[in-house]
Amino acid sequence: MADKKYYFSxxxxxxxxxxxxxxxxxxxxxLEELTRFDNNLIETGGHFYWDIYAxxxxxxxxxxxxxxRQLPITSIGIDTWGVDFVFVADDGALLRNPMAYRDPxxxxxxxxxxxxxxxxxxxxxxxxxxFMNFNSLFQxxxxxxxxxTALANAKKILFLPDALSYMLTGEMVCEYTxxxxxxxxxxxxxxxxxxxxxxxxxxxxxFGKMVVPGTKIGTLTEEVQKMTGLGAVPVIAVAxxxxxxxxxxxxxxxxxxxxxxxxxxxxxxxxxxxxxxxxKSYELNFTNEGGVEGTTRFLKNICGMWLYERCRKxxxxxxxxxxxxxxxxxxxxxxxxxxxxxxxxFANPSSMVEAIQEYCRKTGQHVPEGxxxxxxxxxxxxxxxxxxxxxxxxEMAAFPIDVLHIIGGGSLNGYLNQFTAxxxxxxxxxxxxxxxxxxxxxxxAKAAGDVSDIWEMRSIIANSISMKQFLPADKEQWDEAYAxxxxxxxxx
Length: 492
Fold this sequence. Notes:
This protein is an alpha/beta fold. The chain contains 19 helices and 21 strands. The strands form six sheets. The protein has a seven-stranded mixed sheet, with helices on both faces. The model has no long low-confidence stretch (mean pLDDT 96).
């Protein structure tokens, strides 16, 4: 791998997106952000939609920059958030902009589906996916019940990364990791389930051919080539679900690790050969999503830095810089106020500060005042919740877990990383911050034959970044705090 190779990555989140060009040479990967843009919701006619044409236009802009700089890109890969999809008509045109998972049309529909169509336990036994009202199954059911004409006229249904790849290539596929977020896929057969499809009046041939990460979808159409000034560049199905791409970038040495993809949400899990679907995983609402090379990402969503981000918007007197604010928080007494970050009262309150204070009041604790006390409460509580979920993972994993890898934006939070190591009692390795884009690019490199498998990918990533190590300390203090956490969360 001596020659320098260029890859083009599109990484789309629910609030913003970016295009990135990466180089791979001498067992190292380097990233350069080309463009960054907002991903705006459109509210019209009583619904919320994504502007897929605006996203497509941003991809074209990024490709034009590549052409202008005469960068010989090997391929293109796209990852996005999960569950959302686009309808395609008989003539190949898109039927409306895709509805957004934040649209309230699914409220109450999940319960109605279980009551009238397929039993809740049966849905979990088939899919192993945790229940969220916006999963594709419930979105499609809500649309069917509402008489949605785009659904009624859909020849094909494409998940978002597959829809954007279709706009670039004219080829329709159903990429495995993104399909696994839908609550329609059976992780044992690795195919969409006929029982669930039939339950919402759909057929398997309304979705594209199932492909795994690293599969070539097609090449840029002549139209896109003319617009951008590029040639027939291949478009690769990477791990289309952004978390799957991020987990592919965990620089682990072997399979005995857990990961924490840390951002607004914290996703904690393990990589397994087979899905874990049993009474325990059902009771704890764990999810089994598609990973690379046939693996399953067995994980749980935890309300992560959402609490901190929402409070920061309310604090008028807090320092603007994260390090200054957090340094003030560290001067506060530990474990004075503890919350369960996943309590439903923190889902979307009008004031997060008041919601935290009310939780502490209700559970007979010190009510935190001011940004420093509240920030300390959030960080202490997140680390304790991580310990609880890590304990569940240790019970259900078929192997000992030696290390926790923290990836994503939260990997830069040194205080919380150290608290997590202390709380869990295992080594914590932080980085890379840019996990999703790196995973996307490495899967393109695999498709090009530049890397052989996931472990070579991870070795190159480890060689390209500097990870920070956090070792456990203060065991007795954290054991006492965890006992207090269990007692308080039981009360709430």
